[in-house]
Design a protein that fits this description.
Length: 130
C-alpha cells in the first residue's frame, strides 16, 4: 500500500501534517508550518481555511470566491521553502520565502513570495507579502 505524503512536501501523511492543522486537531507551531498549511489549503481550494488563517486586518473576504475558483483552475505541483527568518514557536512574527509551483493548461508557473506571518489570538496567521 502506497503512503500518501502531505502536499506541503513533508514526508508525513496529510492527516498528521497539514490535515491536523486544517481540522483543528493541532495548531501551526511555526510560521513555516502555517505557510505550508496555507499552500495545502490552496491545493484543496479550501477558502474557509485560507480566510481564517489570514490576519483579520488584511483578510480578503470579498475575494474568497475568486481565490477558490483560481485555486481549482490550476494543477498544484510542489512547494519549495527557500528561507525562513524568525517564526519559531516563541516568536511573535516571522517571514517565509517560498516558491509554489503550479500548472495552467500546458505551462508550468510559480509564485515566488516572501510572506510575513504574525501571531493573532495566540495563533500564527498570514499578514501579507513583505
Amino acid at each position: 500500500m502506497k503512503t500518501k505524503f502531505c502536499p506541503c512536501g513533508r514526508l508525513i501523511k496529510y492527516e498528521f501534517c497539514c490535515g491536523a492543522i486544517h481540522n483543528g486537531i493541532s495548531k501551526a507551531i511555526t510560521a513555516e508550518d502555517l505557510m505550508r498549511s496555507r499552500y495545502v489549503a490552496f491545493t484543496l481550494a479550501d477558502g474557509d481555511y485560507l480566510m481564517t488563517s489570514h490576519h483579520s486586518s488584511t483578510r480578503p473576504l470579498s475575494e474568497k470566491r475568486a481565490i477558490v475558483k483560481w485555486a481549482k483552475s490550476v494543477e498544484w505541483i510542489k512547494l519549495e521553502v527557500l528561507n525562513t527568518f524568525k517564526g519559531a514557536k516563541k516568536d511573535t512574527e516571522g517571514r517565509v520565502e517560498f516558491k509554489a509551483y503550479f500548472k495552467t493548461k500546458d505551462k508550468i508557473q510559480f509564485i515566488h513570495e516572501n510572506s510575513m506571518f504574525v501571531r493573532e489570538n495566540e495563533q500564527w496567521v498570514y499578514l501579507g507579502i513583505v
